[in-house]
Design goal:
Layout (H helix, E strand, L loop, with lengths): L2 E7 L20 H5 L5 E4 L1 H4 L4 H10 L5 E5 L12 H18 L2 E7 L8 H13 L5 E4 L8 H9 L3 E6 L17 E6 L4 H4 L14 H5 L2 H8 L4 E6 L6 H15 L7
Parallel strand pairs: 1-2, 1-8, 2-3, 3-4, 4-5, 5-6, 6-7, 7-8
Length: 265
């Protein structure tokens, strides 16, 4: 059965001091404390600023054997695509090279906005990305349900690229929970089900949500089916407000262990 890595989407949150990090913990100590419990995290700062290879190498050096990172693609590759995209991608690849070299890159996360529609131009762009990151595991998260098509999944599978399965509010136009995988690495992101703030909230209020055990239990049959098809499952909780992601990551791990899943990192 596949290896399961459970962690959170980011770790550098000041409002985690108290709920997760000990009182008085300084920002430069957050990651060290995070490593006491988790063997996987998503790096999100790379969306806002191209990753610096020196910083990435330092982060990787702090982790032990078996730790994996997912790292978000820079906004120039998903949200603000321009004529400089080939150069932008080259800079990004150099930035993440230390993770590749250390064998600690679980996946590059390409998260597209709702405004990234299913059009011929965007399908060609997706093909360009897949061919340009050959040798790197890419996973693609679509926010618009227009992309929920067998042809999209089949295309990603032919290119050995992953699709991101999501748990998010049940709203028109958003993706529904699923279990279709397209590579040997499966990826699930739990965003919370905050309908009220999804469209109009901030990056804090949108993800202000604590999953009930019954809601996570809905995923157990899907996860069991996924584990039969892949080598690695990465699970990231993005409901980060006041460390709710930590609470739910712990809970899901307990639930999977109780269901007989043994290889949880």
């Amino acid at each position: 059965m596949a290896l399961v890595y459970i962690g959170t989407s980011g770790y550098s949150y000041s409002d985690w001091v108290g709920p997760f990090y000990p009182p008085g913990t300084q920002k430069n100590e957050f990651f060290d404390h995070y490593l006491n419990e988790f063997n996987f995290t998503e790096l999100n700062f790379s969306y806002y600023k191209q990753p610096d290879p020196g910083i990435i190498k330092k982060l990787a050096s702090k982790t032990g054997d078996g730790f994996l990172f997912a790292i978000k693609a820079h906004k120039s590759l998903t949200h603000e695509i321009a004529d400089s995209v080939e150069e932008d991608l080259s800079v990004y690849r150099k930035g993440i090279a230390p993770l590749v070299d250390a064998g600690k890159l679980g996946a590059v996360l390409f998260q597209f906005p709702f405004s990234f529609h299913y059009t011929p131009a965007n399908r060609r762009y997706l093909d360009f990305l897949c061919s340009s990151i050959d040798g790197i595991k890419g996973v693609f998260e679509f926010r618009n349900s227009e992309w929920e098509k067998p042809a999209v999944f089949d295309g990603l599978e032919r290119r050995s690229m992953g699709t991101v399965l999501v748990d998010e509010p049940d709203l028109p136009g958003l993706l529904k929970p699923g279990e279709r995988t397209t590579s040997d690495t499966a990826y699930i992101r739990f965003h919370g089900r905050n309908k009220k703030n999804w469209w109009n909230g901030t990056n804090v209020t949108r993800y202000d949500y604590l999953y009930e055990k019954s809601e996570l239990a809905e995923w157990l049959p899907r996860i069991m089916a996924i584990l039969e098809k892949v080598k690695i499952l990465l699970v990231a909780f993005n409901n980060h407000y006041k460390a709710q992601a930590v609470q739910n990551a712990r809970l899901l791990k307990e639930m999977l262990e109780s269901s007989g899943v043994k290889d949880i990192r």
